[in-house]
C-alpha cells in the first residue's frame, strides 16, 4: 500500500500503543515520519521495527510544553521539508473519583490530553496553511462523547478535543487543512492498564462487539483521514472505531 507516498507526518505519542500502530501503518503506506514522545527508548524501539528505507526522525519532547512543541515543529519541518499530516495521539489516563481528585491531577491531564493538541496545531497548522493544505488528526476518545465514571478529567479533555477539532476545521478547511478526530473505544494498550479490573470487566461486558480493540484496528482510520481521495471529504468529523460503545 502506498496511499501516503510523499506525505510527511508528525505523530505524537508514537512510542507506544495507538501512536506506534499509526506510525507503522503510515510507514507501510509510504509516508515519511517525525515521531515524537516523552519516551526516547520507546521511540527508538518503534523506529527500529519500521520497514527498511522509511524516512524517520525521532523527537523526545513533552507535548504539553509550549517552547518544546514550538521547537519540535521547527525541527520536524526542517528535517522533512514540511509536514503534511499532524497526528495528535500523546495522552495519559488515570482513574480518580471527583471527590478525591487533586487540582494538580486535573491540571496535568488537561495539559497532556488537551493543551498539547492546541500547542501542536498552533505551531504546525500555520505551515500547512502557507503550504496550501494538510491534515490534522486528533485522537480523542469515546469517553469524550459519553463520559466515564472516575474519569471526569479525561472525559472533559477528550470532549474538549472534539470541540477544538470542529472549531479549527471551520477556521482552516477553506485553506485546504482538513481537521478531524478519532474517538476510539477501549483499545488494549499500556494506557488502560491503570484502570481497575472491575472497570475493564464491566466495560467489556457492555460493548456490542464484546471485546476491546487492538491498536492496529484503529490505525487504518488514521490512514483514511490522511489519504487522497479517501479522506478528502472529512473535516470537523469524529470517527469512532469504538467496538459499538457509542453510536452518535
Ligand atoms: N487505549 C485506549 O483504550 C484508548 C481509547 C481511546 C482513546 N485513547 C487515546 O489514544 C491515545 C494513545 O493512547 P494509547 O492507548 O496508545 O496509550 P499509550 O500509553 O500506549 O501511549 C501514549 C503515549 O503518549 C506518550 N506521552 C504521554 N505523555 C506525554 C507527553 N507529555 N509528551 C509526549 N508524549 C507523551 C507516552 O509516552 C506514550 O508513548 C491517547 O490520546 C489516549 O487518550 C486510548
TrEMBL record:
What the entry lists under InterPro entries is as follows: KR_dom, NAD(P)-bd_dom_sf, Sc_DH/Rdtase_CS, SDR_fam, TAT_signal
**This protein's name:** SDR family NAD(P)-dependent oxidoreductase
Q: Which family does it belong to?
A: Belongs to the short-chain dehydrogenases/reductases (SDR) family.
The scientific name of the source species is Actinomadura miaoliensis
- Start and end residues of each Ketoreductase domain: 7-185
Ranges annotated as spanning the membrane: none
